[in-house]
Write a structure and sequence with these properties.
Blueprint: E1 14-19, H1 22-25, H2 29-32, E2 41-45, H3 57-70
Length: about 70
């Protein structure tokens, strides 16, 4: 199994306070259980108001469903 580092853009600003080291041994958790055991990191927010600009989970599901249809 190959481990790769991936850069991604966060929708919020702040300081990373924890990372999920369990992913080093089992990276598949990100896809298998992203809302529980597959979490990536914890962030101490710089500005709580940024949360108001995030989309709801249902809206995200609709967004990616549309992208899947285009493939």
């Amino acid at each position: 199994l190959e481990f790769r580092r991936v850069l991604f853009r966060s929708p919020v600003t702040g300081v990373v306070t924890a990372t999920n080291t369990d992913l080093e041994d089992d990276p598949a958790l990100v896809n298998e259980d992203p809302l529980r055991d597959g979490w990536l990191l914890e962030v101490e927010l710089r500005d709580d108001e940024e949360l108001e600009e995030l989309i709801e989970p249902e809206e995200y599901e609709e967004l990616i469903a549309g992208e899947r249809d285009e493939e």
